[in-house]
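Format notes (please read before filing issues)

Several people have asked whether sequences and structure tokens are stored in separate files. They are not. Every record keeps both together, in the order shown below: the sequence lines, then the token lines. Line labels are part of the format and must not be stripped during preprocessing.
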Amino acid sequence: MKPAVCLILLLTLALPATSATYYVALTGSNQNSGTTPQSPWRTLQYALSLPAPTGPGDTICLLEGNYLSDGSVTPEFSGTPDQVITVRPYGDAVVQISRFRFENNINYYRLHGLRLEYSDDSGIIIHSNHAENFLQVDSCHISYHDCNGIYAYGLPGSNLGSFTVEACTLRYNGQDETCGDRGTAIAIFTTRSRAFIRRNYIAHNEAKGISWSGSSPQYGSGTVVEYNTILDNKESGMDLAWIDSSVIRYNLLLDNGRRDDEGGGEYGDKGIQVFSGATHDTIRHNLIRSSGHYEFVPSAGPNYWYNNTFVRDAQSTFWWPMPQNVVDAAGILFSSITYSGGEFVNNIIVNFLSQTNKRYCLEISEWDDYDRQVWHHNLYYTVNDAGEAMPRAFKIYDPAQLATLHELIQVGHERGSRWGNPKFTMDFHLQSDSPARDAGYDLGYAYKGKAPDMGCFEFDEDYSQDRTLDQEIEPQPRQGESASQPDERFLLNYPNPFNPVTTVRYHLDQSGPVDLAVYDVSGREMARLVSGWREAGHHEVRFDASRLASGLYVSRLNAEGRTYMTKMMLVK
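Then the structure lines:
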């Protein structure tokens, strides 16, 4: 072979495979080329079937429309780790698809910006064996399915690989009562799998928010669940079984389990439950509140619970008030644990319920369960309706007794722990005089002040401290003002909930400097809307949250020497 020919051949082999974009439309035909929006294919299934008209690295764009009647989409070939196959809308088109199904060893796909809705099964079904990082699902709506939002399952010995779900909305799944194991936003049943679940809005599903279950150790090893808002799911916010060496952090779990009506003495469900072989997991910096039963139930381990805030301030709405003889209620149920070495450090555990048998911080099934763990530098608080200087907020069933924090410290536990009102702001940050400030133990995480704070939020001088839990959401009138000021005085946004644009309105009595910004639930600034001098009168500013994940945000206005805050719900 001549040298020039060899050089051309080597250069050709070194070139990366080319990627192309193809198009699908309701007005298309599978006889078209699919290469332009003017000559689209008719069905997405055609684009992903063998013999393949598309290949690794290609992007399939769907033009606007409702493709629900096309049924399930089941890809028949894979991409490669470096050349992922992407399925997405064309531009800003709104595209509805019934569901995707990924069978054995179909790998390396990205689903972006799709509305997966109204299937008679689950929105995304993952079956059998897959590769690491085989699927990325981002910025999708996965809602209104008869069964689950995402359902991943495998036979004994299978390995589902790993996948990512990010910036998605998963709501109202479990529409069909006859569907078995229905109603969970993300349900994973297998022997091995790993998931990265980030910045999602998971709400109003008919069972759980997130559920893992399996039958062997190392299931779920290395999973990360972070920055999710998990709201008003009928059963638990999270059920974690056979998940190990994983991280659950910076999540907001609110109002989960309050609609659960299983009966048989069980009314309400938990915020988080960790059980059945879940070991060496780190659960930290989560806010878990207003669950229908216990805020969390750790019954496996050892696991590590650091800097969480648990707020018990609600019960099941199925039966209210709950009968005195139905069930006790506490922030934590510590039950049936045979392992040693779990750590509970820097947590705030509060129970605002005042009903008899419902006002404990911690219920312990057996003293040995508690005694085998490491407990220190936690803050406890309950409503004191019995007149004790320090309520007996620790209920131990075997041997049957009630205990105070002081008594636990005397027998060698709870070193550095405190009793007292944590003095929350309205969104569970700490006020400047909170006993949780600088009272924590240094676990190696970043902190401000002399020492770490207890709970999920570090105190921040720049974060508003003038709004507390016992105040109304609306600003209180200043001295000399009437409480019946017109509504336009207040900081408002409309629409609310919104997607993805809302208008923030505010009123100034006098000209002056104005600072208006939007924060996420962990207190991080997400957008600065106004910074500078503004004249007296009504003002409004447009807030575009296209780049943000669904969830709860807070707008904060500093003006006229006061701070106003209001909650904003982004639902994509």
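For reference, the curators noted about this record: Confidence is low (pLDDT under 50) at residues 3-16, 316-327, 464-489. Helices lie at 3-14, 44-47, 367-371, 405-410.
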